[in-house]
Design a protein that fits this description.
The structure is a single chain. This protein is mainly β and about 200 residues long. The chain has one domain: Sandwich (Jelly Rolls), CATH 2.60.120.590. Helices cover about 15% and strands about 35% of the residues. The chain is built from two helices and 13 strands. The strands form three sheets. Strands 1-2-11-8-13-6-3 form a seven-stranded antiparallel β-sheet, covered by helices on one side. The chain has a four-stranded antiparallel β-sheet with strand order 7-12-9-10, with no helix packed on it. The radius of gyration is 15 Å and the shape is globular. Bound molecules: 2-oxoglutaric acid and fe (ii) ion. One of its GO terms (biological process) is oxidative RNA demethylation. Pfam families: 2OG-FeII_Oxy_2. This is Alpha-ketoglutarate-dependent dioxygenase AlkB. Keywords: Dioxygenase, Iron, Metal-binding, Oxidoreductase. Its cofactor is Fe(2+).
Length: about 200
């Protein structure tokens, strides 16, 4: 494993080997079976290109009413629990006293992206966010706390894990594009990203 450190972001290249990736993927399939992927709509009414779901006490949702954490899926059901193998990644990398209350699942199909943003709907920024990449490569852009500052990009591959803690916790980040079909982990292609968050 190599570890880069760009602007406070910890990028753990190759953190999950192929068998760990398969185990996490199968756990995510269980989550998606219980809580189907949906297309969030921005408060201005624009469909996001990423499809989402979640596990844990809360999921992050967006619709005409705004962005927020919700204890239920848009279909009205509770989110399934965060699978143990995913909680293990959080424990190994953070040693944090609290467990994440949300595992947000993002699915990037061909052409999907995520604009530069801060994760700031959580109550306490002293807890890190841990981000797990599976499947196709994604070009991850990292910036600073202020909007419009310098950014640096890194290609995240299947099994890479990023920890956004300390200064990086409030830093801007996004995914400019994916290389659709670059990984064989997902048979039909695409990129999965999991972000583990303490919400309350
Ligand atoms: O897909 C990624 O690597 C980042 C996802 C992200 O920033 C988010 O869900 O807030
Ligand atoms: Fe984010």
């Amino acid at each position: 494993m190599t570890q880069l450190n760009v602007a406070g972001f910890e990028v753990h290249k190759g953190f999950l080997d192929i068998s760990a990736q398969r185990e996490v993927l199968s756990a995510v399939r269980g989550v998606v079976a219980a809580a189907p992927l949906f297309t969030p709509v921005t408060p201005r009414g624009k469909a996001m290109s990423v499809r989402m779901t979640a596990a844990g006490d809360f999921g992050w949702i967006s619709d005409r009413r705004g962005y927020r954490y919700s204890p239920v899926h848009p279909d009205g059901q509770s989110w399934p629990p965060v699978p143990d193998c995913i909680l293990g990644i959080w424990r190994d990398l953070t040693g944090a006293a609290r467990a994440p209350e949300c595992c947000l699942v993002n699915f990037y199909g061909e052409g999907a992206r995520m604009g530069l943003h801060q994760d700031r709907d959580e109550a306490d920024f002293s807890w890190p966010v841990v981000s797990v990449s599976l499947g196709d490569d994604g070009l991850f852009r990292m910036g600073g706390t202020e909007r419009g500052g310098r950014t640096q990009s890194v290609w995240l591959q299947s099994g890479d894990v990023v920890v956004m803690g300390g200064a990086a916790r409030r830093a801007h980040h996004g995914v400019d594009r994916i290389r659709f079909g670059s990984s064989t982990l997902l048979e039909k292609g695409g990129r999965l990203n999991l972000t583990l968050r303490v919400v309350t």
